[in-house]
Design goal:
2 helices, rod-shaped
Length: 68
Amino acid sequence: MKKVFLSLAIVAMFATSFVSCRETKETKVEIEADDVADDVEDAIDDAGDAIEDAADDVEDTMTGEDDN
């Protein structure tokens, strides 16, 4: 009977030591989601700037102005 309890205690110790040191994937997913959100925001800003530049070029062409 003592061997059964001792064996169960050893198995329980091994199980908790391996489980408690395991990394969770939740933090990795959150970090990646934040990085993706920042990248999307930067891409939107770049696209907006490109549209404004194109609109300025069209306006300059229509009015006959030249940057040089």
